[in-house]
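Instructor's aside before we start: the two examples that follow are unrelated to each other. I chose them only because their records fit on one page, so don't look for a connection. First example below.
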Amino acid sequence: MTIHTFTSREFNQDVSAAKKAALDGPVFVTERGKPAHVLLSINDYLRLTNKGASIVELLSMPAAADIEFEPPKASLRFKPADFC
């Protein structure tokens, strides 16, 4: 992955060169010597923004909605506390 830098003026004068450079990696567009914008290919953008499923989505198990589940009743036996 190569990082390219274009000034605002260079970017405005040759957008196609910036788009071509974005195929190799991010293109930083500077204004007054400071990075102001980043141009990415759609593949790089999707890779960066593709968030995996959240833990809630993974645990929800929508495919398991048809499973019947009846847990057994818990039999809790408590021993009285001895405070003496």
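Example two begins here.
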Amino acid sequence: MGVYKLDKLMDETRRLAAEYRRSTGSTLPVSAELAKFDAISLLGLRSPDTPISGVDALADSDQGEQRIQIKGRVIFDAKKSGQRVGQLNLDADWHVVLLVIMDEAYQTTAIYSLAKQRLLDELTQSSDSKNNARGAISVKKFQAIADLVWPAPLTSS
């Protein structure tokens, strides 16, 4: 075990990544690891004991163990259109994909959940077969068809 706690290292990673972008205009490739860390921490998931191709986390459910792929996206300019979710591994044995949305400070602002079959159905209906074969989908489209799971949606009483 290292000298630093993992949560402190991740906070420092966020700070450094945000400062690097402000200073250089370029991004550091850390959003995937931050997204995995946040999804696992915030949603009470667990990492697989041994690596599983295309699977970043596990959760127990009524249907048994759920295998989860996690994607992260930092939104620097909400007005910018055409932002895409990272390429999804459609051939891997996962059940749900989570999209972790972060702000320009690399802080998680929302997590969306989408079942693999729902995603496959959507990709089949779309007319862009080149992107569909790679599992490419826009952030806006993902948010429109997925469920917001964090922060928990407000319920009316």
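The radius of gyration is 16 Å.
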